[in-house]
Amino acid sequence: MDRYNSTKMAGIFGMFGNIFLLIIKGIVGFASHSQAMIADAANSAGDIFASLMTFVGNRIASEPGDKSHNFGHGKAEYIFSLFISISMIFVSAKLLYDSTISLIYRDTFTFSWFLVAVCIATILVKLFLFLYTYRLSKKYNNILLEANMKDHRNDCIVTTFTLISILLSLLHIYWFDGIVGIGISIWICYTGVKIFVESYNVLMDISVDATTEKMILDLAHSYKEIKKLDDISSAPVGYQYIIVLTIYVDGNMTTFDSHSLADSLEQDITNLDKVYKTIIHVNPI
Fold first, then answer.
1. Average pLDDT, the chain
2. Which of 17, 61, 114, 209 has its CA 20 to 30 A from that of 223?
3. 192, 85 contact by CB (below 8 A)
4. 34-38, 54-58, 162-166, 239-243 — which one is most confidently predicted on average?
5. Are 60 and 76 in contact (CB under 8 A)?
6. pLDDT reading at 1 higher than 60
7. In the CATH hierarchy, which fold is given to the domain comprising 210-284?
């Protein structure tokens, strides 16, 4: 349960942090007519949605298996991360349009030290959220946490460029503001597409990764009684996998001994981090 509780807290922290940033960015951005800051504010609005999806998706994914869902509800993580990715792509398209129009018509904005202060506050808040979710995503291998972590990291970078564009306005260089808005939109779209592809692959039952497959084969080969192995079949259930494997043993081995062997191997494989359940068929040879 630590995995789900930690993800829940990350979603809550993200929502409150992004609501605060949306308010201050929106007020200062529209007051100064800075396209880069307005784009940053829209990005924060998308971040609030992402944090909400993290909270809801994690809540559903934490439900154990039941009669209707024998292998639990782990795929909810990927369904809701799919929602996050789609929202990011839509937000990026709108920002790209607005920033391009601003660049074409050479819009200007009013410099304010409040813009600088908002950028610095954003970088500090997002840096904290990035470090917090980075640690959790590495510990728990959760795509919802990973999506949020990447979002916080991206925000640190794009807000730094927003700060540069604001400072350049002191030299009456306003075109960089529109360029930054376009850059932010492209970055958001790129991140959204990556999350979409990863989520889509799991929902379409992508096979277990090559590293985990090799670990499974090494475990099976460690049993001298196993004479032959069939290819491994696998299907994801959330961040873990169901593994199906057929082994061949001496035809003279008793049924009791062959099933004891299979049970032992099943336990060894299921102890791997990415394995939810192992099913082994035993054939004589």
1. 83
2. 209
3. yes
4. 239-243
5. yes
6. no
7. Alpha-Beta Plaits (3.30.70)
Backbone angles phi, psi at 73, to 5 degrees: -120, 25
Domain boundaries, the chain: 2-203, 210-284
Residue 120 is encoded by which pair of tokens? 């610095």
Cβ atoms within 10 A of the Cβ of 128, count? 13
Q: How confident is the model at residue 107 (pLDDT cuts 50, 70, 90)?
A: low
- Please tell me if the domain spanning 2-203 has the same topology as the one spanning 210-284: no
Give yes or no for a contact between 282 and 247, defined as CB atoms under 8 angstroms apart: yes
- Looking at 126-130, 149-153, 263-267, which range is the least confident one? 149-153
Place of tokens 């191997």: 265
Rg (CA), the chain: 25
User: Strands, E, within the chain: which ranges?
Assistant: 226-229, 233-237, 240-249, 275-284
Greatest Cα pair distance in the chain = 87
Angle between helices 143-168 and 113-140 (to 10 degrees): 160
Residue 192 token pair: 């959204």
Q: Are strands 240-249 and 233-237 parallel, antiparallel or unpaired?
A: antiparallel
Q: What is the pTM of this model?
A: 0.68
CA 200 – CA 180 distance, rounded (Å): 30
CB 37 within 8 A of CB 181: no
2-203: CATH architecture: Up-down Bundle (1.20)
Give the pLDDT band of residue 146 (cuts 50, 70, 90).
confident
- The more confidently predicted of residues 41 and 252 is 252
Tell me the CA distances in angstroms from 33 to 102, 122, 175, one per residue in order: 10, 18, 13
Q: Which one is predicted more confidently, 62 or 200?
A: 200
